[in-house]
Amino acid sequence: MSLLNIYDKQYKKILFIPLSILILSFISIIVQTAQTGSFVNQGVSIAGGLTLTIQGKTTESIELQNFLKNKFSGADISVRDLKSAGQKTGLIIDSSEISSDELIEAVEEKIDIEEDNYTVEEIGSALGQSFFKQTLFAILIAFLFMAIVVFIYFRTLVPSLAIVLSAVSDIVITLAAFNLLGFKLSTAGIAAFLMLVGYSVDTDILLVTKVLRRKEGTVFERVCSAAKTGLMMSATTFSAIIVALIFAQSDVLRQIMIILLIGLFVDLMSTWFQNAAIMRIYMEKRHQE
Q1: What is the pLDDT of residues 40-70, one digit of tens each?
Q2: Gap between the Cα atoms of 176 and 154, Å rounded
Q3: Which among 114, 154, 232, 268 is placed 20 to 30 Å from 132, CA to CA?
C-alpha cells in the first residue's frame, strides 16, 4: 500500500497523531510552568541579568562556561562565541543572580582582560518581564484578530475553527519543543512565534479555500492540489531558513531561524494531517445532509 493510499484511506486515524502531540505539548508546558513558574525558558533579555561582552583573544566558550557554572552553582550562566565574518572575536557571557563585580572577578581567573576590552550590560527583571507581558498581550491580540478575519472570510464555523486550531497547534507544539531542547527565549524569539501565526494561517487558508470553494474533483483531489502548492511554499521557506542557519553569525537571528524551522515542521503536520482530515470529515458530513 502506497503512502498516498494510506493518506487517503487512513486520514481519520492519522488525525490522532497531531492531536496526541498537541495534548502532550500542553502537558509539557503545564509541567514546565509548575516546575519553573514560567511556561517558557526565559533568557537574560526577558528574565533579567547581566551580559558581559569580551573583545579580543579568549578561551574556549565551553571551558569557560563549565568553570563559571562550577563556581556559581546556583546561577544560570551561558557562554557563547562572538563572531565577525565567520571569525571568533570574543565571548558573550549571560548570567543571572550574580553581580557584575563577582562575574568579572571570576572571568579574570581564566582570562586576562583589561577594562577597555569588555562591556557589561545589566537588564532589570522588572523591565524584561514588563516587555514580555506586553509582547504576549500583542500576540494574543494579533491571534484574536486573525481568528475574526478567518470567520468573516469563510462564514463557516468548522473550517474557521480548524484554521484557528492549526495555528494554536503550531504555537503550542513549537513552544513545547523549544523548552525540551533547552533553548532560552529572547525578546527577538518572541517575534518568531508571531511570524509562525501568520505562516500557519497562510497554508491553512490555502487548504480550506481549495477544499471549500472549488467544485472540481473529489475532496481528496482538492487536498492533494492544495498540498502541491503548500509543500512547494514550505520547501522554499525551509531552504531560506537552512541557508540562514548555516551562514548567520548573530545568535539572535539563529534563534529566530530555529523557532521558524521547528514551527514549519509542526505546520506540515498540523495542516496536512490535522486540518486536511478535519476538512474531509466536514465535507463528508455536509454531503450527507
Answers
A1: 888 776 777 788 888 876 667 777 878 888 8
A2: 30
A3: 268
Pick 3-42+126-288's CATH classification: 3.30.200.20, 3.40.605.10, 1.20.1640.10, 1.10.510.10.
1.20.1640.10
Residue ranges covered by each domain of the chain: 3-42+126-288, 49-123
Burial class (CB in 10 A: 0-12, 13-18, 19+), 236: exposed
**Residue 190: all three cell numbers together:** 518572541
Please, what's the b/e burial string for 59-90 (b: 16 or more CB within 10 A of its CB; e: otherwise)? eebeebbebbbebbeebbbbbebbeeeeeeeb
Exposed, middle or buried: residue 158 (CB in 10 Å: 0-12, 13-18, 19+)? middle
Read off the pTM: 0.81
Is 3.30.70.260 the CATH number for 49-123?
Answer: yes
Triad 259, 121, 96: Cα angle to 5°: 65
203, 210, 225: which is closest to 283 by C-alpha? 210
Considering only residues 81 and 166, tell me which one the structure prediction assigns the higher pLDDT: 166
Chain segment 144-166, per-residue pLDDT in tens: 888 888 888 888 888 888 988 99
Spell 245-278 as b/e; 16+ CB within 10 A means b.
Answer: eeebeebeeebbbbbbbbbbbbbbbbbbbbbbbb
Segment 165-181 shows an average pLDDT of: 92
Average pLDDT over residues 254-268: 91
The phi, psi pair for 176, rounded to 5°, reads: -65, -45
- What is the H or E stretch that residue 221 is in? helix 219-247
